[in-house]
């Protein structure tokens, strides 16, 4: 008998006047006999369950019971659904789908229709192909069971390396999922973007957890530096989104000086070049030189004899 099913039944009964046993059985994918056993256990736990006969009958919690029946408001439930849908749109999980179904059971049919029509969460890009969804089940299993993970990892330049790590945490940041763990190859904590992981395997070897206080300890293998950009006023909103207002200062009537967090890779330089003459790197000098080199290389590639 699963404790999560018992708790879910109690939550549903707290939010509904009555629910039919057949509906509960269908929702939790069990038999009605199992639901009756669950109700008996809930009764023995001290929560009085009453039965209502008739076509519109069912079971519910006694009206004068001291637990407040409105444990969650409709606004609370909508907030939960938005959060769960955000996760489900970027990872596939039967458990999340079942949880969403259970929570929707707390709403009226009209509220469910309103939510489905008014709120859509889609983290996929507007253009290009969707990334394949990583195998979260294997990663979660390795994290819970303290087992090593083996995989191939592609860096920004496309170079693949074999990694064996002690997995500790899955993190979603800026619509992307990352795995944090201790890399036995680098002998340090590292953060890996899941879309760059391939040939994932959960190994039979277990590990003893290391001290792992915060996400900041598991650094990315790419170092971030601060560069100064002179940008046109048309880019102010974009730069504010990336850096925040504190990193932007007025330069003249049409330009702004930006302290920009920068990673020296193809993606970083591509970000600067996409804005053309509206975004100029002021310093450091070696970044300016690399931007110029890439511009000349691109110009040479387009020259036709």
TrEMBL record:
Domain of life from the UniProt record: Bacteria
SUPFAM superfamilies: Winged helix' DNA-binding domain (SSF46785)
InterPro entries xref list: CBASS_pafABC_assoc_protein (IPR051534), DeoR_HTH (IPR001034), HTH_11 (IPR013196), PafC-like (IPR028349), WCX_dom (IPR057727), WH-like_DNA-bd_sf (IPR036388), WH_DNA-bd_sf (IPR036390), WYL_dom (IPR026881)
Signal sequence region: none
Limits of the HTH deoR-type domain: 2-61
Keywords annotated in UniProt: Transcription, Transcription regulation
One Pfam family, short name: WCX
SMART domains: HTH_DEOR
Protein name, entry field: Helix-turn-helix transcriptional regulator
